[in-house]
Amino acid sequence: MPETLDTIVRFHDLRRLKELDRCVFSLICQSYRPLNIILAVQRFSQADIDAVRSALSPHVEGEVGVTLEIVNFDKEKPEDARSALLNTGLHAAGGRYLGFLDYDDVLYPEAYELLTSRLQTSGAAIAFASVRVMQLNVYYYFLYGVEELSPFYRGSGLSDLYKSNFCPLHSYLIDRSRADSDTLQFDETMTMQEDYDFLLRFCAVNVSDFAMTDTPIGDYYYKSDGSNTVPTTRGLKGEELARFNAIVTAMEVRRRTTKVSDAVQRSLGIEEPDESATIRKVMDRLKAGV
Fold first, then answer.
1. 178 and 206 in contact (C-beta within 8 Å)?
2. Which of 100, 108, 171, 206 has its CA 20 to 30 A from that of 184?
3. Contacts with 227 (C-beta within 8 Å, 6 or more apart), sequence order
4. Confidence of residue 14 (pLDDT cuts 50, 70, 90)
5. How far is CA 172 from the centre of its chain?
6. Radius of gyration for the chain, computed over Cα atoms and rounded to the nearest angstrom
């Protein structure tokens, strides 16, 4: 019998309910079962939660093998709870497989079936595919997708991921039975690139598989109103640019302080692992061909 797959969806603005509806519909259309949707909401009142449940219930009711659980992050801090929402969802997750999806993005119907199959074949703790970056024009009453954009970054393997993040939140799936449980946590102080920080730490300890990085399994919507938090300096200035540069520095600190496990070093072709090697040292070693 297939193992349960948990998908954590974070949602913070009731005004975006139509986008959440589209997101959840893409999950209901997944060919993989059983599927548990964990909707992590940010400081919602009971009336807000009831409104969300009422809006999404028509999708879930009657669907065999699909459940919906709403968990509410209700603490005052951190004020920006994007990372805390993911941790709130993680606390509620109990299935073997774990995926993430933001309320304004979508997955294709075969996404989880492909990724679970790849995890079973590879024996890795995390399997990566790709997603298309779609331009989405934002109007007052509706959203309109007009064209596919070039990815923010390109890459095909772990060494590329160590350099920069080319793997959006919904482009990968985790096998919790093969993952170090201590790495399944987001840094709640991070308010930008929190997903990349997570991947750096997770993929330094757990073996990863990148065989499907040429296979698109969903869409990432880049909005014309600038509401996305993206890993580039495009359009940033002043305080926003300074904040971005601070995050870049923090990511380099993470590379220089996070040790890489022997298993991961061997997966990168390093025959004699160094137990004290950090991500940065491994990157330098690979560059030198040692």
1. yes
2. 108
3. 138
4. very high
5. 7
6. 19
